[in-house]
User: What shape does this take?
Amino acid sequence: METATIPAELDVYWKQLDCGFPRVEPVFADCMREALATLSKQGVDAYIENARFLGKMGRGAEPILIFMEKWPAVAKTLGEDALPAIMECIRRMWKSPNGNAITPFLQSLPATARRLQSPQQLRGYLDIALDFMERTTGSIHGIQQTFPSPGLPSLFKQVSVLLSQLSLEGLKNWVEYGVRYYKDHPDRQIDYFSLQSADSRAVLQRERHGTLLVDNERKLDMYLRGLWHDADQLIPYSGAFDELRKPIPYYDKLGIRLPDVYDDFIPSVGCTPCTENGAWNAPYDKAERIVISGIDRYRAVLAHIAAHRRWTTAIFADNFSPFQRMAVEFLEDSRVEYLAMREYPGLRRIFAALHPIPAEDACDPENESGVRHRLAMLSRAILDPRHPYKNPHIIEFAQRFLALMQHSDSGTPEMADLAVLFVAKTRRQSDQLPKIHFKDTVVDYRDDNRQMWKFIEEGDEEEAFDEPRKIEPGEEINGLPPRHYHEWDYLNHSYRPDWVSVYEALHPSGSAADIDRLLAKHAALAKRLKKMLDLIKPQEKVRIRYQEEGSELDLDVALRSLIDYKSGATPDPRINMSHKTSGRNIAVMLLLDLSESLNEKAAGCDQTILELSREAVSLLAWAIEKLGDPFAIAGFHSNTRHDVRYLHIKGYSESWDDRVKGRLAAMEANYSTRMGAAMRHAAHYLEKQQADKKLMLVLTDGEPSDVDSKDGRMLIEDARQAVTELDRQGIYAYCINLDSKADKYVADIFGNQYTIIDRVAQLPERLPQLFISLTK
Amino acid sequence: MTNKDQYKVNQEPFYQPQGDEVALYEAAYAARLPVMIKGPTGCGKSRFVEYMAWKLGKPLITVACNEDMTASDLVGRYLLDANGTRWLDGPLTTAARIGAICYLDEIVEARQDTTVVIHPLTDHRRTLPLDKKGEQLEAHSDFQMVISYNPGYQSLLKDLKQSTKQRFTAFEFDYPTAILEVEILCKETGMDKEMSASLVKIGQAARNLKGHGLDEGISTRLLVYAATLIKGGVEPRAACRMALVRPITDDADIRDTLDHAIDAVFG
Ligand SMILES: Nc1ncnc2c1ncn2[C@@H]1O[C@H](COP(=O)(O)OP(=O)(O)OP(=O)(O)O)[C@@H](O)[C@H]1O
Ligand SMILES: [Mg+2]
Assistant: This one.
């Protein structure tokens, strides 16, 4: 057994190992040296003994190879004491039909050790794995212990990704879910445990640690609106499935893209926090470590992006080399952040903690390209006046930057000039090397800057325009003859008489039971609403006290007055009371926008806006019926001014019965939104109601528009005019808007008689509540 | 007899004009046209009226309206006394007699059957029938009617009748621009410019959230409170949380966002 590669001093171990695999021999010496350097005497013995066992298990060379190479490092993180538990786990796999999972298990050990950090944690993890193994082994068609667990090898292959995002608790829940649903489905089990299936990812998402975007959308939306007067869709992307290349935040036409989760950020030692008003006075290396919470990390990204949106003007990319472009981006990022901090000094604390501090000597100029490294240092130097850098170029350019910003906002082109100079002054031969120094150069709250560049050569974009929609034959509505309404032309300050034709028809009918089901689904909410309704429900008779003339003497007050009088004080003469029946006298018209866009899925849930509206309207109708206010429901959509359709769902004389519910159940969304005409038509019904107060609620998800109206303002102005007309008729119009960008127009139309519901999913709850508070 | 002077505004109140409202008001007063001032709470409506009364040198009688108020509370009533009964003018009657500016603050709070008593005073008749007393009071030539209300209260039941609205000329007030509001804080509280600007910035963040969970943003009045607290030695962040954030919302998300705004502004 003497071999050339085994040094004499290791020979005794080699003999103990007693291993015949040719692949082990060449690595043996290196492994042993590392083991001897890191393990105790007993540790080394255990190392050899267990390696020997793995070699004789009959599962090839892989297990012993991996173990020999990895164990010393794992033992360093977890302690040598962890070994028995690990070996026990391997033995259990070996004795069951799950020997095929041993290799993936061993392979995952270094990564799991890094995540778990302690032997207790490891034990918890092994318990989860073994429990999983037992419950999924051989349970197909009741045959015991014959088939290996289909999911076990996949689980070990994914476990480092899983543990990077889940606590043990979360891992346990995730595994539990998979076992519960896919115990008896080998293929689906594999899909689940290899993170291929959608539900697997969804459960992972649910169990994640950190601050989730979905849980904080409203707060972040408020941040953007409140502090930056900006608003956009916030769209999460997942960083979970790509450990190497983390996606970077960005924004485009559809919205702002952000990671779906942020953990709290703990800066490495040496990161400078700053004190009050950006004064930097703690000694640099002793600076306290501040934790930046997940929500503040989101705010940092939003602040950076909002700052770009406010202060960056796109410039042509074609004139710059790739390095120059990178430099322009770094400097422009610094500039917009500088301006943002001028607005909100508190941002400095967050930015400074999140921004990396590349070590000045970290980059090897002989073998790596140092452009990124230099730019990251410059960026740090600009952000942090007490930066540690000695490089004269870094110092010079940080000063030039600050001088530019001193008295003005400067601009993207000025940053481009400065960037080009910087690149020229600091150029090195090695910049061209393929290996780029990356460490500590990524500022992870910054976006990818795609909005900063324009390109001269751009594909001729085809002019997109809406095809005018045609009514399909046979779709004609046979109903009443059209009624004509005027429309307001704001450009000429006059009405276009009889401009719009409104066709009214009975809404087609569906199944009333669907609506009852919806109401049943919201039973808990209905119960809450009921309480609120009882409070505002008109009592049969209301007593009005403190009347000078009334129908009866109010004894309490009369006595008090008498006493006042006798004692020489001024008595209150209002000693009578009278009765009045119900102060509530409100007629309501609920007008529903049924245009095409309602078919879209509401953000953050899988129902369409139409479905949510249907639920909300059902609840509202139920509530109003309970109150006894007369009310009507109608929907509308339009397809040019010649064809505005007004769909009758419930009239004032009808009660909330199966016919009405049936129509609501069949509600569909199509075409456009000519709101003014629909409001005028609805008003002519509401106006005829005998009521002190007349309320028209308009539920819509967007601005008025129609295919034949090119000027976007036109129908907005007309709707505004319609609101004024309604006001004159004594009708109070109120808009419930589901478009989070509605600020741009809704106030123009409805003054302050509106509410925007940003989270459409809440509509079923909000709509009835809104009605109640409007009319109490 | 009622003493006119007791209603005079003696000291010049500080009022920061936002536009041409002072001149316009003077014109309305010259024609004795009734004036209505709409605007969110705490934006300076009452202060403006006070200032105009001072500027015009006319007495000012202010009535804060409420739901329980009856017509007699405005017009007057008979009181019982040892010798029988005695008539006592209400504030509206007093104002019409002595030629004061009568300011009905938050008029929508009053019930509509109460508000109709101002109708004859606010059209060409300029009279007030005191039915119980059997008197037809001709308004003094200096008398003017001013009402204010906040259209932000989104309740259908709290709105003015058209027939009331259409008797008034109207101003639409809003919170002042940032520059003016900083000025107001400085002059009103003696606060320095930098701190005032920070407070105004927080106010604006809240106003941007109007309609998105907040019915109304932070008023100028609250900003004045915050500045006053800080002047009195309260730590600025604590003062802001107490005067600006806690009063206006119970919504945790909004509170959190505004608390963050405070930290962001003060750095
Ligand atoms: N233009 C202004 N000039 C001076 N002070 C102002 C001005 N606007 C607001 N203020 C300050 O704000 C405070 C509130 O203003 P004011 O009492 O006039 O509000 P308001 O509009 O009448 O409110 P409400 O509707 O609640 O009665 C004032 O006491 C004053 O300190
Ligand atoms: Mg950027």
In short: The beta strands of chain B are 35-38, 60-64, 76-81, 84-89, 101-105, 127-130, 135-138, 144-149, 169-172. Chain B has two domains: 4-172, 178-266. The pocket of magnesium ion (ligand 2) is lined by residues A 304, 308, 333, 446-447, 449 (CB under 6 Å). The two ends of chain B are 60 Å apart (CA to CA).
